[in-house]
Structures are given as C-alpha cells and as structure tokens.
Amino acid sequence: MLNIRKAMLLLMACTLCGFSHAEPTEISFYFPIAVGGPVAKSLSALVADFEKENPDIRVTPTYTGTYKDSIVKALTAHRSGTPPDVAVLFAVDMFTLIDAGAIVPFDDLVSNADDVAWMRGFYPALMANSRAAGQTWGIPFQRSTILLYWNKELFRQAGLDPDLPPANWTQMADFAQKLTRRDDAGITTQWGLQIPSSGFPYWLFQGLVTGNGAQLMNEAGTKTWFDRPAVVEALQYWVDLSRTRKVHPPGVIEWGNTPSDFLSGKAAMIWTTSGNLTNLKAKAGFAFGVGPLPGNKHAGSPTGGGNFYVFRKTTPARQKAAFRFVQWMVAPERTARWSIDSGYIGVSPAAWDTHTMKDYLMAYPQAAVARNQLSHAVAELSTHENQRVTRALNAGLVSALTGAKTPQEALKDAQTQAEHILLPYQR
C-alpha cells in the first residue's frame, strides 16, 4: 500500500513538473501607431493568430504612441532593466539603439542555413537602414516610401490629364500653378501642392534631395552633407513653391493635416507616406492617382517606417521566442495581408508572389507603386545621435520655409551643428 502511495505521489510530481514546463514563454512587444486607419486592430488580430499557432508563446502588445514616443519609452525601459523583448521602432533609430547597447544583432539569433537565407530575403533598399558594420540589427516590417497623390477630378477641372501626373520638378510646379485657386478676395481656397514640414520634415525634404541627385549622409552614419549645393538647391525649390510661386501653403505644414486637406479638396496634390494609402483609399470620395515622386535629375525617394528589433537585456528563451515571433510576422502571406490592410510595402519579393497580393494588385494596381519605387530608393537619414542630428536639420528647414533664413544659411548652420554632434564618431 505504501509503495502504491509513493508511486502516485511520484506520478503527481512528474505531472506537475510537466505542467511547469508547458507554461508559455511570455514576451512583451512595443508597437507604435503613427498613421491613420485601423492599424491597431489589424495588429491585434495578427498577434492573436500567432498565439493560436504558437501556444508556447504569449505576446503582450503595448501601443507606445508615435515613433518619437516609442524610442523614448523603449530606451527608458532598457536603462531601467525592463525593456520590451521585441519592438517595432524607426528604422533610422538603429544607430541610437546600437550605441545604447539596447539590441542584439539578428545574426546572433539565427541557428541554421534557413534562418540565414531568410535574413537575405528582404528588399535590399529596405536593408540599408537595417544593417551596420556587417551585421543585421533590424528586420523590415512596416516600411514605406514617399508617394505623390493627386486628385483626378481637380486635374480635370484644371484642364490636366487626370491619368498623367507631373514627371519632374518643372512639371510639378507648373501643374501646381494650374491647380491653385483663389477667390475674388485673393484668398487661396485650393493649393496646387502640399508637402508637410512638421513631424518628419527631414524625410520629406530627403525626397527632394534624392530627386536632385544628392545624399544627406554617409552609410556609416558618421558624416552629413547638409550644405552641399544640390541639397541647398532642393530646399530653394521647396521654399520657392510657397514664397515665389505661391502654389504651396506658406510656413510649416502639419504632417497630420495633409491627408485631411487632400480628402477635403484643399490640396490637389500631396506628398505623404505610402503607409497612408489604405486610409486614403477608404475615405476618399473621389478618384485619386498614386505615383512616384517627381525628380529633377532623376526619380527617387528615401525609404521610411519601422523595423523589428530584439532587445539585449532579456533572457535567451525570450529572445528566441521574440525571434520566432518576428519570423512569423514577416512571413510572405502575413506581410502581404499587412501591406493590404495598412498600405505599407510588402517587405520581401516573396510577399508579392502570394495569391493574396496578386489578387489585390489585379483590383488595385496602385498598391505596387511604392514597391516599384524601391528600385531607386535610398536609405532614410540615419546617423549616430540621430535625434539630435535630425533636430538640427529640421530646425534649419523650418527657418528657411518661414523666411527666417535663406536656404543656404539654414543648411550651413544645420551642417555646423551636425558636425559638432558627430565629431566623437569620426575615425
């Protein structure tokens, strides 16, 4: 009898031990909400699906506000010793996260040849803001380019072909002239073109710089070239649109107001992220076009958006679970679905080969414009001390757009500040 009781107790102990091992690994996930549309709802659905397919991992998503809010929260949590296990943060925050010792390279997480091949399966243009010093620090997720959107009905009213957007800077300014309307009192009721200059002014400006054949920084993130002649020329063009041609709103234009102004007919053409495509498509009561950015010397756009990062101050088991979560989230079928739901670019060629994406493109071919633009896209402005460097450039842009400084003065001052900030990183 005693032996039977011992056997039962041993069985119960083993059973309890088994239950202990079956407890799921819990990981925390920081995710920013930075554009319109039902992004949070779509993300929550993806997390729920992941947990169903991976019952040994439980994901707790925390919506951390804008990208700017998110990097502050992530670094604060890292310094306090309680970082998220995985986060979507700005791709341009890569150097900042590396310098803080906050993240691990994905090269340390791969375990076989299939994992290595997976890391090489993303569009090269998107990896330009994901790799540094020969290692992969970020995995592209909600990535974008800047697009030109135009109201086809307003094109018709102005005598323009609604299916032919401007192909270069000269045409864009000329089209904007025809699309600008003023009432009898001389008050502008419809702007021909609107490029936002708050929120991410450096990014929109980089669209002009790229189209003028120039670059803002080196690949290592240690030098900037804000005051080069082609960069100054790009800013002069932007300033002239509002101050000389008067076809663009004066002063600082709010990032968040630009899609609304487009939807209400206050702006006939706008520049904004491809991440706004699905939101505009759902809300526009008119036909609109989607095209690549018109360039001066050639076409081009910076990439933008966020990467997945895995944090260092966590356990190996949670890092492993986070890695599985990232791989699942960027699998071709889910990347395709996320691209359709949000307007962000499907980050791998394999995503565009899915039946889901092919069917969507048959019905809505405009969705491929941002992807096609990757062939001549450049890395978004990213340096060490990136927040300070971009703050210097943003201040310079605002001073020029508001008339406080000439474009040359503004960019010379921004370059001087950037050189001072980056001096410790010169080698």
From TrEMBL:
It comes from the Bacteria. It is found in: Periplasm. Keywords: Signal. Belongs to the bacterial solute-binding protein 1 family. InterPro entries: Bact_solute-bd_prot1 (IPR050490), SBP (IPR006059). This is Sn-glycerol 3-phosphate transport system substrate-binding protein. Transmembrane segments: none annotated. The keyword Chaperone does not apply. Residues 1-22 form the signal peptide.
